[in-house]
From TrEMBL:
Functional summary from the UniProt entry: Catalyzes the NAD(+)-dependent oxidation of L-threonine to 2-amino-3-ketobutyrate.
Stated name of the protein: L-threonine 3-dehydrogenase
GO biological process: L-threonine catabolic process to glycine
Residues the record lists as binding NAD(+): I175, D195, R200, L262, G263, L264, I286, Y287
Amino acid sequence: MKALVKEKAEPGLWLADVPEPVLGPGEVLIRVLRTGICGTDLHIRNFDAWARQTLRVPLVIGHEFCGEVVEVAPGVEDITPGDLVSGEGHLVCGKCRNCMAGRRHLCRDTVGLGVNRDGAFAEYLTLPASNVWVHRVPVELDVAAIFDPFGNAVHTALTFPMVGEDVLITGAGPIGLMAAAMATHVGARNVVVTDVSPERLELARKLGVALALNVAETPVSEGMRLLGMREGFDVGLEMSGNPRALREMIANMAHGGKIAMLGLPAEEFAVDFATIVTSMITVKGIYGREMYETWYAMSVLLEKGLDLSPVITDRFSYRDFDAAFDTAASGKTGKIILDWTA
């Protein structure tokens, strides 16, 4: 079968012929239909410091996907050939304290699909049945392919109540855009999105946010003034990992404000802890998705009318992966989809 492989310990990806995966006990064999390109995949392609430290090559990459079930192992229930599925890309041990307590997203021994084991950028993959999410209601293939990052957005955005609140989202990448769509959908009052990319800010406007602010030109405090806000933001969703973005968010939070931080910084940086203490600001780190409460919430949100289509901006055949990755790396687009049927 064809697969996108990190064949060598150097920058680049290779479209290669690899053996089809063999179905193991408790697993599901899936024919891949669509995949989404993630920032992690860009790091792997570039073979940066994180990738050099983390990967063992050769490796089939990719963890955002949807596909059709081809075969299930004996004993697997509630999943049948022909089902449309997505997959939870964090494979957990099931034995540590958090797993045993039902907090599987906090497993200390998580294995990452497409990072620590062969992934989804291939014509077929196998996945433990416990990691397979069956779409029980109709969903577009492109949207089903991005349930993994959509889950990051939902996990972050639902961490703190947002109904009637003023929400600041720093970072208008695909996950930030999905979080913005969700915040508006669930009834936040003012949703403000910040970035330095005019193209991504325009996507945020299409999602109906109150204000899409280019912070290279206009500070957050001025955006608050334009909206008639006086006391700061109630909820902050930090999606960029940018030190300046978090510092500006902290400076513009209301007393008692709450920050959910998904953006992953490249290195340590200083923040104003005096303001966090004196304003009693809560900062909570977010990683991955809650298994599987987040997945249930995603499906219900889509069923009740949440529209993610503006977030998906470009589609390519998997054979044109280099162009697709270049587009994703430009920092000017939303989500990029690879079609494995074309």
